[in-house]
Write a structure and sequence with these properties.
By secondary structure, this protein is of the alpha/beta class. The protein is built from 7 helices and 11 strands. Strands 6-7-8-3-9-10-11 form a 7-stranded mixed beta sheet, sandwiched between helices. A 4-stranded antiparallel beta sheet has the order 2-1-4-5, with helices on one face. Helix 4 crosses helix 5 and helix 5 runs parallel beside helix 6. The chain is globular and about 50 Å long.
């Protein structure tokens, strides 16, 4: 179970300790994240909410190795990533992280199959092995019959399904979702959330998701809030518990 406690289990899949992130803007230092502690177990589904500018996307970028913290550490499956070289970090991301964004980031001139295959082109898999992986991923998102369609031939919900297939095709350790339903109508959003829940319950994926939508956030068993760079945990009664404080 994901927790903001300072005394998390050493067996947690993702361990964040004392995480700080600050940016320099002119002569002013902007503190985005302050002393975050977080433990996420294998198979957890965690939603992060908070006002714009609270550091939600920054946190996802740090967890995915797309940015480096000003202080603190991030460890995933025993790998401490905050001091990896850029080359090792690139290799680590390819093995361990699947990204799902609000905008699907599909390449318009490539078919669904080709878009999903892209992450595998940097691996040592043979062409037949890549095809098997892609077909499996598209089957999971119920788009095997659309593999030869181009993005312009798909609905928004279908495009996001292709993006999800691309994120899982390499069987990553965990998925980072940044507003995955933000560009969808409610029906399509519900379908995407049902798919993400299925990835957790049936395929054992670990999911960390940022959203502004309370209906979407309610689908996650664990809801955490970022407020002024501090992580707080929502109780079942809607009360918030500051990281490290007693519940």
């Amino acid at each position: 179970m994901a927790s903001v406690s300072n005394n998390g289990s050493s067996s947690a899949l993702i361990q964040v300790r004392g995480l700080n992130k600050a940016y320099q803007r002119g002569g002013e230092q902007i503190q985005v994240l302050q002393g975050l502690n977080l433990d996420v177990d294998q198979g957890d589904f965690v939603a992060f909410m908070g006002p714009s500018g609270s550091g939600k996307t920054t946190l996802l970028n740090l967890l995915g190795g797309l940015d480096v913290p000003s202080a603190g550490t991030v460890s995933v499956a025993g790998d401490e990533i905050t001091h990896m070289s850029s080359g090792k970090l690139t290799e680590w991301r390819a093995r361990h992280v699947g990204f799902i964004f609000q905008m699907y980031n599909l390449i318009p001139v490539l078919t669904a199959f080709q878009n999903v295959e892209l992450p595998l082109l940097l691996t040592r898999l043979s062409k037949s092995e890549r095809r098997q992986h892609v077909e499996t991923a598209l089957s999971i998102v119920a788009l095997a019959d659309r593999m030869h369609h181009y993005p312009r031939q798909l609905s928004g919900g279908q495009e996001q399904r292709v993006a999800i297939a691309r994120s899982i095709v390499s069987d990553p350790t965990f998925l980072l979702c940044d507003e995955p339903t933000g560009d969808l109508d409610r029906r399509s959003a519900d379908e995407i959330m049902a798919l993400i829940e299925e990835l957790v319950s049936q395929h054992g994926k670990t999911v960390l998701m940022v959203t502004h939508d309370p209906i979407v956030a309610a689908r996650a068993p664990t809801l955490l809030h970022l407020e002024k760079g501090v992580l707080v945990e929502a109780s079942k009664k809607g009360q918030n518990v500051a990281a490290g404080a007693e519940a």
